[in-house]
């Protein structure tokens, strides 16, 4: 059921990608300089007079972007280190974030709202990973968590915003940008980012609680809806998948120290979601048929499996950002990195 919801949502996202290709571009300045329209014979500016450095067009352009992102962007860079940072950050901040979320939900909606929100988050993960994390989440969230809003809240916020910082570092590396702002400003921005995310998740949790009530009211009025209960029951997954999409889109658009556009970040976001979906299927199959972590890691097997999955997700996240950067460079007529210009030849 989870993968069916992801597939429906990604299909809608692909349609949105094509629609976004017609959106007007945002610029860094208030006024755009007047540019004379190019004739059919006009060609991109060739750096240093080398015709071999002209960016390709058509299907070769897609291969050019893929090659720039995968080889020069991921394989021959520090993307693997940023993926490891992402995996560690998400695993170390997951439980503090859920504790804060439960503490807030305890004030506003009770334990039922907190349970609906956390279950919705785990629902978008592969079943095997969710089954590993769910007992631990239940253990951490057992008992009163309202004290977390007054005791140790600052430490929890620092840990949670570490995930935002790891995302920012990875995005700045992929987009070739450097953030020179004071670290407290970045931490405050990360706190706001996670606070908005928590509010959105609690709002979705409220929808999960409210939806059965809507169904019980609607079915007596419209009995023809009864056969569609299974479809209606998948809506929470679609909602949380949409939240994941918006989280990625906002992270690519807002976190880098570089002016971004929706048209510029949307391809990488959709590629990231698509590859996350494929990685979830492949990793679930791997865990259920081949993996034997208990023989190697004993009691740490569950944590290691989750860490490996988040590492793969982090690498895919970096690849999506590199795709965006390569695509932006191609649209601006930049040739990208070649063996001759990389400084590795000769």
Description:
Helices cover 71% and strands 0% of the residues. The chain has 346 residues and is an all-alpha fold. It has one domain (79-331). The longest helix has 39 residues, at 183-221. The chain is globular. Mean pLDDT is 74; it is low at 1-51.
Q: Averaged pLDDT, please? A: 74
If you compute it from the alpha carbons, what radius of gyration comes out, rounded to the nearest whole angstrom?
23 Å
Distance between the termini: 54 Å
Number of helical segments with 4 or more residues: 12
How many domain regions?
Answer: 1
**Series of secondary-structure elements, N-terminal to C-terminal:** HHHHHHHHHHHH
Helix content: over 70%
Number of strands: 0
Residue windows where pLDDT falls under 50 for at least 5 positions? 1-51
Strand content: under 5%
Shape: globular
Largest sheet: none
Structural class: mainly alpha
Summed up, what is this model?
By secondary structure, the protein is mostly helical. It is globular.
How is this fold's topology laid out?
Blueprint (H helix, E strand, L loop, with lengths): L1 H19 L38 H17 L3 H30 L1 H14 L3 H15 L11 H22 L8 H39 L7 H5 L1 H20 L7 H28 L3 H5 L3 H31 L15
Task: Write a concise keyword list for the protein shown above.
346 residues
